[in-house]
Inverse folding.
């Protein structure tokens, strides 16, 4: 891909901030006025892709006037999400500086192609969010579609990936995918979106620092003067004042930082460990649920909780497996003892249910 190095015209790191959605002219002007001075690009969603109908779906084209006014009066560059050829036409008409493609659009090649054609040969910067599913090729495919239409000022935004079970993050970050992207396209800037990864305010700083540990070039942070009252994504928005504080705390790691490779490798390993720990806990909880069922069954048939023969079989089997997987017999003994004790506790409490009450 032949791309241009547009990011050198901005500060390092590049800060993009503004509300999830434009709500009113006053809201936009108020936020812009309070914005930390190092924020160089003001974001606001005008058309909002919402999960369910009957949610607030954005103010529409009128918001472009407000965004333009913010740009003119505060001398800040502007950006909004485009999802159709018509959005592109309007955003270009209002001379919005930078356009981004949202996660729900990047997944759809027809949609991306339509947008790319509507943008043909533009000098505008176009930022492409990762698709909602962790598919690096699909993400790159979207960039290629834009590039084939002569769009050279390209960047990407890592906003995390959807999962069915929600745990710590709203959208699970996959730093490894961002690093793989960087290896393939070292000249295309990568921006972190801690807001959509975190989903809650108190994780914004932590996720932002991680993005810098991985050598990201900037951040896009949802910022609102009254976050609790925001019409969309209220939980994850922070005030411009809080953004200023976070920016003061963050350590930006330059690409030449000797420790950079170490930090990145460490983070990737830690993320893998976190993921495995979560899976182990999920499995253990599932195991205890099954122990509970067994407790019910034993109670019904009046059988004792502890069955020495069965326990002997489990131990033999587990030692065999442990050997195969390279785990020490001592570790497996301790693990089994803990699991066995807990299972017995669970079964006992099932059997004693009516006695206790
Ligand atoms: C947004 O930036 O407000 C947005 C809708 O993001 P995403 O496409 O990442 O869900
Ligand atoms: Mn949002």
């Amino acid at each position: 891909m032949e791309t241009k190095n547009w990011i050198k015209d901005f500060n390092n790191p590049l800060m993009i901030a503004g509300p999830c959605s434009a709500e009113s002219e006053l809201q936009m002007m108020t936020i812009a006025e309070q914005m930390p001075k190092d924020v160089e690009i003001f974001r606001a969603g005008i058309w909002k892709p919402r999960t369910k109908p009957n949610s607030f779906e954005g103010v529409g084209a009128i918001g472009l006037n407000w965004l333009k006014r913010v740009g003119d009066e505060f001398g800040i560059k502007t950006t909004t999400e485009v999802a159709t050829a018509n959005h592109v036409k309007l955003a270009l008409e209002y001379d919005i500086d930078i356009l981004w493609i949202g996660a729900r659009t990047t997944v759809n090649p027809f949609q991306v192609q339509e947008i790319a054609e509507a943008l043909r040969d533009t000098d505008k910067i176009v930022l492409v969010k990762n698709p909602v599913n962790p598919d690096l090729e699909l993400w790159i495919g979207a960039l290629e579609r834009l590039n084939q239409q002569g769009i050279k000022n390209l960047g990407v935004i890592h906003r995390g990936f959807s999962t069915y079970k929600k745990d710590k993050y709203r959208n699970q970050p996959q730093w490894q995918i961002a690093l793989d992207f960087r290896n393939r396209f070292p000249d295309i800037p990568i921006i972190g979106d801690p807001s959509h990864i975190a989903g809650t305010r108190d994780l914004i700083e932590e996720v932002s620092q991680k993005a810098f540990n991985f050598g990201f070039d900037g951040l896009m942070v949802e910022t609102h003067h009254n976050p609790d009252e925001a019409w969309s994504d209220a939980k994850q928005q922070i005030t411009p004042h809080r953004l200023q504080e976070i920016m003061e705390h963050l350590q930006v790691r330059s690409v030449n930082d000797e420790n950079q490779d170490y930090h990145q490798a460490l983070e990737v390993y830690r993320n893998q460990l976190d993921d495995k720990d979560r899976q182990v806990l999920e499995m253990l909880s599932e195991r205890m649920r099954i122990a509970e069922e067994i407790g019910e069954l034993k109670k019904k048939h009046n059988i004792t909780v502890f069955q020495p023969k069965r326990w002997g079989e489990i131990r033999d089997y587990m030692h065999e497996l442990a050997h195969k997987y390279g785990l020490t017999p001592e570790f497996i003994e301790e693990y089994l003892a803990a699991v066995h004790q807990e299972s017995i506790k669970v079964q006992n409490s099932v059997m004693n249910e009516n006695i206790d009450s």
Q: What stands out?
A: The radius of gyration is 26 Å. The chain has a mean pLDDT of 93. The pocket of phosphoenolpyruvate (ligand 1) is lined by residues 20, 45, 49, 102-104, 129, 159, 196 (CB under 6 Å).
